[in-house]
Amino acid sequence: MSNMPNPLVAVCQMTSTSNKDKNFEAVSHLVAEAKRRNACIAFLPEACDYLADNKADAVSMAEPLDGITIKRYKELALKEDMWLSLGGVHEALPDKGKTQNSHIIINNKGEVVSTYRKIHLFDMENKDTGVRLMESDYVQKGGEIVTPVSSPIGRIGLSICYDMRFPELSICLRNMGAQILTFPSAFTYQTGAAHWEVLLRARAIESQCYVIAAAQVGTHNKKRVSWGHSMIIDPWGTIIAQCMEKQGVAVAEIDLDIIDKVRRNMPNEQHRRTDLYPAILPLKH
Question: Which segments cross the bilayer (predicted)?
């Protein structure tokens, strides 16, 4: 048996604003703290680059993936000798009319090793409360489930925020070899209070993967407040590390043997009736 310790991961929580420089400064402090606590990879939330005050700015401030902001993140990964999960940056599109919400993994050499573009967009209009959040107004949805990326902590399956409400994606990623699922988020305060923990724990239990969910927290502007409560969950559904309601870092160990043990003792995949599911799933016309 190996005497090597299991790797440590850091889930990071921050309050992004429209100021890119201040956001990067906050990220730098979080990553440095993760490094100090011996994590080999830091998971950052959706909109870690910026959270604009309006949709027009969200589009106009976006950069291509070879732009200045991603270059700074690459340099940070190299400087700290750490892997980074940028849970959702605004990727500029050629026509400039919309952005894509892109989750990027950078290795400790400062290289982008995987990019996932959010496939489920959060469109919500509550006429009772007057709240309207339509991500599709300014974001173009992605069209691909990305193969899990090999990393020092295992094979990571990429997703973003609202994706967690669609268990099919988690099962697909598990079947593609994922051992860790990520749900970097900017969850609204109301939906976070109701659904954040229960959804994340359900995704861990049904996929039998670790779940790492970095989150935005607090007040970003006059219109946006995020729930926070970034967490790491093991394949049994137990929360093993958590931030609460302020910026910070939580660290936990990733033990891949636990995944094997859970899957062996609760062999869900052997019992899954994929032969019947097409007959009961509704067809889209």
Answer: none
